[in-house]
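Repro:
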Amino acid sequence: MLRPQSEAELCDAVRGAEGPLWIEGGGTRGPARAAKGTRLSVSGLSGITLYEPGALTLVAQAGTPVAQIEAALAAENQRLAFEPMDHRAVLGTEGTPTIGGVVAANVSGPRRIQVGACRDALIGVRFVDGRGDAIKNGGRVMKNVTGYDLVKLMAGSHGTLGVLSEVSFKVLPQSAVRATLSTAGLDVARAIAALSAALGSPFEISGAAHRDDVTLLRIEGFEASVKYRAERLQQLLSGFGDWSVDMNAAEVDATWRDIANATMFADTDEDVWRISVMPGDGAAMAARLPEARVMFDWGGGLIWAGVAPGTDLRAALGDFRGHATLVRGAAETHAALGTFHPEPAPLAAISAGLRAQFDPRGILNPGRMGRTGAHGG
């Protein structure tokens, strides 16, 4: 395994590669089951290189543990806006989540409905392309992006366009008070209707989920504002049952951490799929999966589904507006069904063109986003 300790060493490693490289961060997204080639870990590129709390800006090397970043932010009463998922529970892996892995997979949690995804908080990147050249795009302020928006392009590219060496974020202050509103007993259609009503209100919802027969909403802010909005939401949603309010910060944080990490699928033998749809389509999509255990996030726009091993969930869903990703499954299931949803031909042509430009030798994570790739990272 290659483990460069600097961006210069990373350039040398990529430039000198004689075959495919399988790029990984902290190893939390599982082993490269279907991968061939040399493992290249960026875990040696670690550390916060710039943090300016007053400017709400943080820069870190790609191999920096997410926990280290969150601790530094918490010391200044700040946070990553998009509360990234930790895959270890659902995948049964160990390792250490790294900030480069978060960016490479565009990992975004429940607060996405309010503040956007990881890529929306990302303001700058440094990476090494398939030629071994270091490239910088963006900067340390939100408007410092010119030419190609490689910042957005790298988020979610899963290491197929370049190996991240450094990332820059705009961060947010931590909220003073957090509250969870919950009610039980709603069926999926009614639950999503309730979530939609809340999200369409002026009461600034930062989490909207449904799992295990419980419908959940989160609001954040100053205490007086949170109490006022909680009362108004209880009135607004009275037609959907009685809503309790939990303002215990530790309990609220634990609830939404479990939602973000999809922990209801931990320690089971199910295949786990992540389905992104229009929120209004969520109930109809779930109805096509009567044998699945499901959890909804993003007001119904994100469906987590646990199904019997080997199930072709995409075939069960049929045509729909969105995409389904196999998050957990056997290597042969990943190989047979493909980890990622097949791209429409025009988009596939654009993706292939981008890879040809950034990785002309085709050595960076070949197959990871295609039919032969596993979900490693």
